[in-house]
Design goal:
Distance between the termini of chain A: 13 Å
Largest interface: A-B, 30 and 32 residues
CATH architecture of chain B: 3-Layer(aba) Sandwich
Shape of chain B: globular
Strand content of chain A: 15-25%
Order of helices and strands of chain A: EEHEHEHEHHEEEHEHEHEHH
CATH class of chain B: Alpha Beta
Number of domains of chain A: 1
Number of strands of chain B: 14
Number of strands of chain A: 11
Strand content of chain B: 25-35%
Helix content of chain A: 25-40%
Oligomer: heterodimer
CATH topology of chain B: Rossmann fold
CATH superfamily of chain A: Aldolase class I
CATH topology of chain A: TIM Barrel
Structural class of chain A: alpha/beta
CATH class of chain A: Alpha Beta
Shape of chain A: globular
Largest sheet of chain A: 8 strands, parallel, barrel
Number of helices of chain A: 10
Radius of gyration of chain A: 17 Å
Strand order of the largest sheet of chain B: 2-1-3-4-14-13-12-9
Structural class of chain B: alpha/beta
CATH superfamily of chain B: Class I glutamine amidotransferase (GATase) domain
Radius of gyration of chain B: 15 Å
Number of helices of chain B: 6
Strand order of the largest sheet of chain A: 1-3-4-5-6-9-10-11
């Protein structure tokens, strides 16, 4: 049976991993390449690289880093951040990305997902959405979660998947950083309307949060997190063992 | 030297990097002379069968691959490259494959249980039907590999060497004489995947 995936997310600015990392035995803890290799050796099932640079120089450094990582790490790589055109897809796919995640770019250009899916295949296009509760409804937020777009999230997700997004990363702004567990209510609402893989993001604080996620929502395929992995609060190899012990299919 | 057939389908960066990582000499090429001089051939591929088959024919690579396979040269098809080794595919129509293996490519929809998602995307475990096949000399049954596909090879009992459980057994690897193929992506399957590529490189 297909395993549930555990995915660390690396935010990269000017070629360095930000949000600080804290690993003993890693030569350069802020090197995306070193960190990617480390996670791959611990059993990470996939890696997400998020480009948070704004300058074109930064973009160039990012793709160089991506290329270097892809030449040394042989698990699936998803790239996001600043993807707003087919040229952006092309740029990162050529450097070894397997999937490309689109967030604000799809809001600015609603035809992007459909065009990208047609050119590269659905499996290559990941819809990433930052969602927050506003007046009792789920709203899509843009610009890294700072701007309320007024768009109702569940309908947005349904539409983008209909256009060809082959996977969904749902990041709950409400639970992000709180470390009290994933947003099960929001995830359940999204799982209702899509049949593509769903990746839960935002809120994981400990190993048990992943167990609760996969037990409560069998339709969720993967759990994504950043700082709890970077700071060693959750060891991926230990998490995988705990998942297996709980009857959750895990790649050990 | 391993020739990775370049016929304009998909990104070959990870594949050539992974071969480099195991110390195998590989070139990405559509140069007929180079392919004929190579010790082994890898036929990669992602996307839709129709487009890939058309491009393989346009570049003349279909004939080269068939000739070389007939001469006994080791050939490994990966993902869509594996699917093209078969007689035909029913993806968005009916299209001819290379016909090097007996069987056809059919949709998983209607075959796998309804509650399972398509494409099958992620890591799944290998059930080795022929554990002694040289492709598996560095791995064991139950090892996980990375799949992304919505179609699979059916009617290929005579070449089936591994399957994976996705509600029902799904063809994961095939081999007949010098013609081998994997539905999964060894170049994205971590250490297990590298071990599979190493086995091919050493075959």
């Amino acid at each position: 049976m297909i395993s549930k995936r555990i995915i660390p997310c690396l935010d990269v600015r000017d070629g360095r991993v930000v949000k600080g990392v804290n690993f003993e035995g890693l030569r350069d803890v802020n090197s995306p390449v070193e960190l990617a290799k480390y996670y791959s050796s611990c059993g990470a099932d996939e890696l997400v690289f998020y480009d948070i640079t704004a300058s074109s120089d930064g973009r160039k450094i990012f793709t160089d880093i991506l290329k270097e990582t892809a030449s040394q790490v042989f698990i699936p790589l998803t790239v996001g951040g600043g993807i707003s055109s087919l040229d952006d897809f092309d740029r990162v796919l050529k450097c070894g990305a397997d999937k490309v995640s689109v967030n604000s770019g799809a809001i600015r250009n609603p035809s992007l997902i459909g065009e990208a899916a047609k050119r590269y295949g659905d499996q290559c296009v990941v819809l990433s959405v930052d969602v927050k509760r506003v007046n009792g409804e789920f709203r899509v937020f843009a610009k890294g979660g700072r701007e309320d777009t007024g768009i109702e999230a569940i309908e947005w997700i349904r539409r983008c998947v209909g256009d060809g997004a082959g996977e969904l990363v749902l990041n709950s702004i409400d639970t992000d950083g709180v470390k009290k567990g994933f947003d099960l209510e929001m995830l359940a609402a999204a799982c209702e309307v899509v049949s593509v893989p769903v990746i839960a993001s935002g809120g994981a604080g400990c190993m048990q949060d992943f167990i609760d996620l996969f037990k409560a929502l069998p339709k969720v395929d993967a759990g994504l997190a950043a700082s709890i992995f970077h700071f060693g609060e959750v060891e991926i190899s230990e998490l995988k063992k705990l998942m297996a012990a709980n009857g959750i299919p895990a790649r050990l | 030297m391993i020739a990775i057939i370049d016929y304009g389908v998909g990104n070959l960066f990870s594949l050539s990097s992974s071969l480099k990582a195991i110390g195998a000499e590989a070139v990405v090429t559509r140069d007929e002379a180079l392919i004929r001089a190579a010790d082994k051939i890898i036929l990669p591929g992602v996307g839709a069968f129709r487009d890939a088959a058309a491009k393989l024919a346009e570049t003349g690579m279909d004939k080269v691959v068939k000739d070389e396979a007939a001469s006994g040269k080791p050939l490994l098809g990966i993902c869509l490259g594996m699917q093209m080794l078969f007689e035909k595919s029913y993806e968005y129509g009916e299209y001819q494959g290379l016909g090097l293996l007996k069987g056809e490519i059919v949709p998983m929809e209607g075959v796998v249980p309804k509650d399972l998602k398509l494409p099958q995307m992620g890591w799944n475990a290998l059930d080795l039907i022929q554990p002694d096949h040289p492709l598996f000399k560095n791995i064991k049954g139950g090892d996980y590999v990375y799949f992304v596909h919505s179609y699979y090879a059916a009617g290929c009992e005579d070449s089936l060497i591994a399957s994976t459980e996705y509600g029902v057994p799904i063809t994961a690897a095939v081999a007949k004489d010098n013609v081998w193929g994997t539905q999964f992506h060894p170049e994205k399957s971590g250490t297990v995947g590298l071990n599979i590529l190493r086995a091919f490189a050493e075959a």
